[in-house]
Amino acid sequence: MAYRWKNTLNAEDVTPYSAYLNRRQVMSGLAAGAIAGALPAGVRAQDGLDPNTWEEITSYNNYYEFGTGKDDPARYAHRLTIDPWTVQIDGLVDKPGDYSFADIMSQMTVEERIYRFRCVEAWSMVIPWNGFELADLLDWVGVQPLAKYVAFQTALRPDEMPGLSRPVLDWPYVEGLRLDEAMHPLTMMATGIYGRDIPKQNGAPMRLVVPWKYGFKSIKSVVRITLTDQEPPASWNVANPREYGFYSNVNPNVDHPRWSQATERRIGGGLFAKRQPTLMFNGYEDEVAHLYEGMDLSEFI
Ligand code: MTE
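Above: the input record for the complex with MTE. Below: its predicted structure, written as tokens.
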């Protein structure tokens, strides 16, 4: 599925792409030219995104199944068994079934996409994901005409996930998207970061990434995907509907009841770095605003 999108970042975010390639060269030992040649045009069009470091992306995480501390996932997620991994795809689809991660990967085109990531806690990162479009997976299993929503579920493994012993959320972690959001070409299932397999603390072996929504919509370690005609439950919305809506689109004009969403702190910017203004739909307004035409975005949060 070919798709091009504009680079919507601010001037401050812009660094030469060569700097990014140099870092990759160091990491992978490959020639920068070879990598640039291998990148799809859509990625090259995003020159100027300056990703966070591997260290930042993999050591400051939210994955409450492993604890609520930012360093808990990096400390405990190694306990998660990800091989074998099966994803149950069911509901309103033509080919329901239990699909192995390997089977899914054999059918999907993996590419790299550098996305802004905006957490509801008002911090942000830029992450070079590898993965495939969720739409390609949904097309492969065949979405039936009555389907209106997609529900997702994370693994529930009390033996491997120490955080499950605490009733922070109503486990398992679940999320949902409207079908048009799920089919949008920006929506991806991430399976890697910086060209390596996605680390367990970031949601191995595959996690959702929806770049115009707050980070909590990006559910990790997905074991079940269900096509349905009903709006599915979403963990944070169930836990606290006053603070977290079903849509959770990044919106600097609608404050969280306990803090402002107008600005964000870029992780890695240093303690005294200036906060950046948060952009409507996290900077992806041109690509996604049409999905919400006619909806009052201060009501449908
Ligand atoms: N998925 C599961 N299963 N459990 C979680 O606690 N946290 C969410 C989201 N997905 C979470 C989850 C939140 S609040 C955020 S901000 C992102 O994961 C963090 O993703 P990252 O650790 O890759 O930055």
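Notes for the reader.
The chain has one domain: 40-292.
The pocket of MTE is lined by residues 61-65, 119, 154, 173, 202, 215-216, 218-220 (CB under 6 Å).
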